[in-house]
Protein: Arginine deiminase
Organism: Petrotoga mobilis
Amino acid sequence: MNLSVYSEIGKLEKILLHRPGKELENLSPHYLSDLLFDDIPFLYKAQEEHDYFANVLRENGVEVLYLTELLTETLNDLDLKEKFVKEFLQFSEIYNSFIYALLKDYLFSLDTKEMVDTIISGIRSDELEINRNIFSLRVRRADIELPFFLPPMPNLYFQRDPVAILGKGACVNRMKTSARRREVMLMEYVIKYNTKFEGTPLYYEKDYPYPIEGGDILVLSEKVLAVGISQRTSPEAVEILAKKFLKENKDTFEKIIAFIIPDNRAYMHLDTIFTMVDYDKFLVHANLKEDIDTFIITKSKEGFDFYEEEESLENILKKHLNLDHVEIIKCGNADIIASHREQWNDGSNSLAIEPGKVITYDRNYITNRELEKSGIEVLTIPSSELSRGRGGPRCASMPLIRRRYS
Ligand SMILES: NC(=[NH2+])NCCC[C@H](N)C(=O)O
């Protein structure tokens, strides 16, 4: 497949999704916040909402690919399946050799599709037949209080974050929290071993020590990338990305705009406070400070030039995207309460499917009205359950191909 993502808004042709499954039913109040949820979605409604999202995409000419199908197809080779299971268990930090063997045998006994679904939903201790006479305090403790031998991955429907597609390549991210770190391996295997993705250049690898997440990376144009240095993305990761992506890469990109954004859950990634909706229109959190701290990174003969850009967001966008005029649309119409409420429910997290046409959550109706006033066509999707995971239509999707424009 010729991956091709050179903008945030070019006509969307192919997109990657994960339909939420049983992993959401493995959320419990005891460890909700460790798994980065604020509430427990009702799975069947969440799936209905997700199917609605996928249908809106299809009705607009977008081909929807599902991660689990791509991975199942990839792992149909037995040797690769074995390699994957072993690496997945190691990456899950299963060091207890008894549990490791138990999980490995169990996963091998499943057909590939079931195996893929199972590693996502997690494996509870009571799902396995275990000989209780074996000396294992870990097993006994699990009977009492710890239900999982393999924890679930409830955040997987936020496909934006684990692997980011940039230009014709991919960033296989190191996620900040252990709750999400393993998600990356699913698409990593597809990219590295599915023949459809052969030859995809990689700009980051999950074993690098510094965290970076896809919600912090925006492709503003075929020359300019925006990156958030945030709660989830470290400055060192951006340095590595700059080197691999700008310097060693033969693609069209020339510049990275790095925004320093506050370390706070509501602002978690750049795309929770800033998304692009048209050539010259941007949707932002009303409370984003005008003079956001910004660094511009460009390549030079010796290495990099970088400097602090002391301009307003509007001027920065005008200057670096070569625009005469930029319109900033404010989430919640900057109302003192609505702006926070709607941003919390991902009002600023729109997914453009072509210039000036976006998908957003229906619950953020004040923001949606503002977008329409600015001439943006807004397609809304139901959002009572999906929003409980703190991510919107952009977070919940990863474009693979967008039509280019110049
Ligand atoms: N690109 C995004 N804004 N992703 C939102 C991810 C939400 C997820 N619960 C997390 O905390 O990681």
Summary: Residues 43-59 form the longest helix (17 residues).
